[in-house]
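Please fill in the sequence for the structure shown.

STRUCTURE ENCODING:
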């Protein structure tokens, strides 16, 4: 099978990073990859956002076929979290809202993110009987209880959407989608920035400059 251009570029970036690191620690006298310029294919942020209707269709079908995975995917959307920090959540991090601890966030800051009240009840039921230090989302693998990995969730979501003829969807697209929907629904840029855990409001404004606030609507998913 042919390799997608984006995959080729990602692998070349990995090679560049290897040479940069080797030079930094003194293993190489110079960095031969420094002169190589890579142009990562750029996608408009609009192309990474699902409509509310598309999300409803995906979630409706997933709830019928895989309730446990449905809860993960819905909460990824509702929380706006990066998948790595989301999967690191422990039972003790749930207090009718999620606490994303500094050690697991990109910004190295702890933040508290509310979620829809009806989903709170779903989580309470899901974690019933678990210890505080247990992962909220885990499964048995190799005879042990382990947290879900980014790859496992990404693969499941990709295959599910392919099998049911839904648009290509990734966990990070859920993050872009909720940010866009929230801004369109009237949430302030400051609130969205905090929800996403961005280092500054400027970062949020730069990423979501496509949002047209003149067409504000009340999201039925939030």
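FILLED IN BY: designer on duty
SEQUENCE:
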């Amino acid at each position: 099978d042919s390799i997608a251009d984006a995959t080729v570029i990602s692998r070349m970036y990995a090679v560049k990073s290897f040479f940069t690191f080797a030079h930094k620690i003194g293993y190489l006298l110079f960095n031969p990859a420094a002169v190589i310029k890579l142009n990562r294919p750029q996608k408009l942020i609009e192309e990474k956002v699902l409509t509310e209707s598309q999300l409803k269709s995906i979630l409706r079908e997933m709830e019928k076929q895989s309730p446990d995975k449905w809860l993960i995917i819905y909460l990824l959307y509702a929380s706006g979290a990066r998948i790595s920090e989301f999967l690191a959540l422990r039972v003790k991090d749930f207090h009718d809202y999620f606490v994303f601890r500094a050690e697991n966030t990109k910004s190295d800051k702890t933040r508290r993110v509310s979620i829809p009240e009806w989903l709170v009840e779903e989580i309470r039921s899901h974690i019933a009987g678990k210890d505080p230090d247990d992962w909220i989302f885990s499964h048995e693998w190799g005879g042990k209880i382990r947290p879900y990995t980014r790859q496992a969730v990404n693969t499941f979501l990709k295959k599910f959407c392919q099998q049911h003829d839904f648009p290509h969807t990734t966990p990070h697209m859920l993050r872009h989608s909720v940010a866009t929907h929230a801004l369109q629904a009237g949430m302030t840029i400051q609130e969205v920035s905090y929800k996403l855990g961005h280092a500054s409001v400027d970062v949020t404004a730069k990423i979501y400059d496509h949002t047209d606030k003149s067409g504000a609507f009340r999201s039925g998913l939030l």
